[in-house]
Write a structure and sequence with these properties.
mainly alpha; 132 residues
Length: 132
């Protein structure tokens, strides 16, 4: 992928950060466009036509702003979803590590019991059941 040393969760977070940056840039561009349109409307000789054009552009800008806000909310929700998923994964990892430790302890206890039982009942030499 684009970030070879980064895990999938971090890749998604990086993408969300890039999306936030792009959305911020879009806000700046939209604001600049509105200022340019207002300056242009002042230089047009026919005020009624300029006003109509300005109203149409303002309506389009309002629609873009609404779409932008919807997109911004969606990106924010995705960020929260990623964060919640990351927490769940971390919690599952902790639980798995705990269970692996419990399993390892029980396995060691069982091997010890089997070794002890085998030595008593089958009269095995002491060094037979020890690791090499």
């Amino acid at each position: 992928g684009q970030f070879p040393n980064v895990g999938r969760g971090h890749h998604l977070v990086a993408m969300a950060s890039v999306n936030k940056l792009l959305l911020s840039l879009l806000v700046v561009l939209l604001g600049t466009s509105v200022l340019c349109i207002e300056d242009l409307a002042e230089t047009i000789d026919d005020p009624p036509k300029a006003a109509l054009g300005l109203e149409l552009m303002e309506e389009k800008m309002d629609n873009l702003q609404f779409s932008f806000m919807e997109l911004f909310v969606h990106v924010k929700e995705l960020g929260e979803l990623f964060t919640n998923n990351q927490r769940t994964i971390e919690q599952n990892q902790l639980e798995t590590n705990h269970l692996m430790n419990v399993l390892e302890d029980r396995l060691a206890a069982n091997v010890s019991l089997i070794t002890s039982y085998s030595k008593k009942n089958f009269r095995l030499p002491n060094n037979l059941c020890q690791p090499r």
